[in-house]
Amino acid sequence: MIKVNVIKAPITEELIKFEEHFKQSMKANNALLDKLTHYIVKRKGKQIRPMFVFLSAKMFGEVNEDTYTAASLIELLHTATLVHDDVVDDANERRGFFSVNALWKNKIAVLVGDFLLSKVLLLSMERKKYRSLEIVARAVQEMSEGELLQIEKARRLDIDEETYFDVIRQKTASLIASCCEVGTVSVGREDEAERMRIFGEKIGMAFQIKDDIFDYGLPGKIGKPTGNDIREQKMTLPLIYTLNTVDKKTRNELINIVKRHNENPKKVRRAIKLVIENGGIDHAYEVMTKIKNEALELLEPIPNSESKEALIKLVEYTVNREK
Question: Which of 82, 145, 154, 267 gives a 20 to 30 Å CA spacing to 72?
């Protein structure tokens, strides 16, 4: 398994400097807001999205102030969506810490998310980074549309693979696509922006499929409880494939569990077993690997460098991670 620190090696200094940039972008005059944003910064994750920004930028040019601004915009947006998602999902934990809504209730959590989104607007306007704002604003739109499409389809359980890919392309992949696109644009390589947007989109889709697979195995080694997606009636790729390929009796049993018995641990385990036995996980792995390879092919014409090698390793990390 590739270590994150190995991937970070070409951009170690940039990521250290970025942390200070990001903290500054989160500052607030209000004492409660300042306390909340400090809490959010303290429990941040592995910096996957800033890594995509900086590696994309460094692969094509020299990291500069525009790159730091771009990474801050992405991270502000990502943090805002996490805070709002916890409210929508009524989640009490994220990455082993209490969520903002668990500690300060939903009303404050929603307002904190709004504050972070306002920081995206203000930072981009203050620094006149209108192209970066365009990229980030498009991601906000797509993420919202993807979430709503998923909710709409989950109610009827009639989602097919094509619709599923539309959902994850918007809901998850749009943000990683924006990371790669905005990083490239920040070093003046508009000519490579579309290539890197598509590259990031494919990696984001592979990332989401990996998350889908987590729901079906390796308890104790993953970031969320096994069967969580079934309990939340989320239509993931392994489940969609199984529903569309099994016999009518098995399909009806699965639909019955997801619709009416998703809170029953024994029934959820039965659903997991059916999905695994009928090739749902194998199919998801195949699709994830195919999308990942398509993404890597997009990098082939780009000259070799330490940053390109690290970006390839970051791609491998996203599909081979254990949590």
Answer: 145
